[in-house]
Amino acid sequence: MSDESTKATIEVIGLRKRFGPQLALDGMTFTVRPGRVTGFVGPNGAGKSTTMRVILGLDAAEEGKALVDGVPYRTLRRPLRHLGALLDASALQPSRTARNHLLWLAHSQGVSGRRVDEVIDQAGLGTAARRKAGGFSLGMRQRLGIAAALLGDPPVVMLDEPFNGLDPDGIVWMRGFLSSLARQGRAVLVSSHLMSELEDTADHLVVIGRGRVVADTSVSGLLAEASGGRVTLRTSAPPRAAQVLHGAGATVLATGPDTLGVTGLPDEEIVALLARNGVPFSQVSAHRATLEEAYMALTRDAVEYRGIPAGEATR
Ligand SMILES: Nc1ncnc2c1ncn2[C@@H]1O[C@H](COP(=O)(O)OP(=O)(O)OP(=O)(O)O)[C@@H](O)[C@H]1O
């Protein structure tokens, strides 16, 4: 799984799909690569579930194609061994125990019964696996869905809104779990409409709005861009500090009686310059945007109806 260029695992190429007058996918294009968690993020109705359904062949696109390991999912002979998916955690047999549900799935896919107990452990189902799935909370259903997705030990895992219904402990568990799947070399695609859920989890982001990709970027790159290289400086000698930094090519703006906003120089260079020129300072801190801030900036135009007074919505 080391050569990313030849091991692309999900390729979505130019998908277009309508539901009646509603354009759900409008040229959706991205690639999910192994060894990292790719967050698939967008506001409600942006097209996340539809894209995943097209990848699985559950919905047909009018244009474009979706490939898993280079071929359409429907043509795979043992699909669970290529891609494990959790789309709808409520899709289970309420009268079966979780373990029997998994045994039945394993049998239908030629997977050994031994694997069932492994995935029960991996998904943290524990003794609940012997209970009827009909009585499960949404969080336990998510875990059961994840256990099912892992049955075929697939190199690609795709989860639609897996954080839904999880309590804070469950969210922490899910983050660690997704990261561990990626560390094992798997390609992990996980959708969410809340960027905060993916904090400390996603390595890469495909941000979508209105059926198309708005940004396809590493998390670190997105944060650096949103942070804009702004540094806040606290000093008892603002005019002197401004003079020194301006002389070194920075743009300096007074932001308070003893604070300056500096752009155009990295924080460590600012510290060195001030020290060398004997300018006193008590704080130099680079502004770090949160993932949520970066996301809001990206999707500002893509959110349907946000802030539009009733009666003025045009779609
Ligand atoms: N079966 C359907 N019939 C009609 N319209 C649909 C259908 N499925 C999806 N849509 C429409 O397609 C668009 C994309 O929906 P989709 O469910 O893929 O978005 P999403 O990003 O998954 O949203 P959410 O975060 O709410 O799940 C929306 O405008 C939605 O109303």
UniProtKB/TrEMBL annotation:
Record-annotated ABC transporter domain positions: 10-235
Protein name in UniProt: ATP-binding cassette domain-containing protein
The UniProt record lists the keyword GTP-binding: no
Superkingdom to which the source organism belongs: Bacteria
Molecular-function annotations in GO: ATP binding
Record-stated family: Belongs to the ABC transporter superfamily.
InterPro entries: AAA+_ATPase, ABC_transporter-like_ATP-bd, ABC_transporter-like_CS, P-loop_NTPase
Source organism of this protein record: Streptomyces castrisilvae
SUPFAM superfamilies cross-referenced by the UniProt entry: P-loop containing nucleoside triphosphate hydrolases
